[in-house]
Amino acid sequence: MKAQAPTAHGQGLSSQARNLHWLLTNLVDEVPGIRSVAVVSSDGLLLLSSDPDRADETAAKAGGTDGPRGSSADLATIISGLGSLTNGAAKLMDGGGVKQTMVAMEEGSLFVMSISDGSLLGVHAAPDCDMSVIAYHMALFVGRAGHVLTPELRTELRKSMESAQ
Predict the structure, then answer these.
(1) 41 and 161 in contact (C-beta within 8 Å)?
(2) Domain named Roadblock/LAMTOR2: which ranges (predicted)?
């Protein structure tokens, strides 16, 4: 099942915030196999999501098979934790900065890519997805979003996500 396009909480958002919502909507709509997407700040807070209105009980009633079992906040937690783990591993191995992490599972894949200032883009995808296509489109998103994801915009996006829940 295809991830829902994010709802633009449009009224009152800056043009940069609307543009990021549009970029996320395009990622979800254009790339086959994507189940859910989240953008997470360096402190682990959800900034953007492909399903910002999804509640824990909604996912439980639906069987939770199309994404992480809980809310979009659960995906944000997973992305943040995986980002922290891989950054720690890279430091221990003198590997430099982590550009991308990919976890292949029997029933899906998880991709995490650095955006800027510790922010992360995470994509949960179907098991039959084309990994190279997803990685390519994630890189496009990161290239377009990285330079506009300022501290002010991150604050605006956090407040927007809080009001959506």
Answers:
(1) no
(2) 21-125
Can you tell me which residue has the tokens 């009633």?
61
Choice among 1-5, 29-33, 160-164 with the minimum mean pLDDT: 1-5
At the second CATH level, the architecture of 15-164 is 2-Layer Sandwich (3.30)
User: CB under 8 Å to 125, separation ≥6 — which residues?
Assistant: 33, 34, 35, 108, 109, 110, 111, 131, 134
Listed in sequence order, the DSSP H helices in 54-127 are: 56-61, 72-92
Q: Report the predicted TM-score, pTM, of the whole model to 2 decimal places.
A: 0.82
C-alpha–C-alpha distance, residues 59 and 56, integer Å? 5
Is it the case that residue 140 has pLDDT exceeding 50? yes
Residue ranges per structural domain of the chain? 15-164
Decide if pLDDT at 27 tops 80: yes
pLDDT of 69 strictly over 70:
no
Answer left, alpha or beta for residue 119, where phi above 0 means left and psi between -120 and 50 means alpha: beta
Query: C-alpha angle 155/161/66, rounded to 5°?
Result: 135
3 and 28 Cβ atoms separated by less than 8 Å: yes
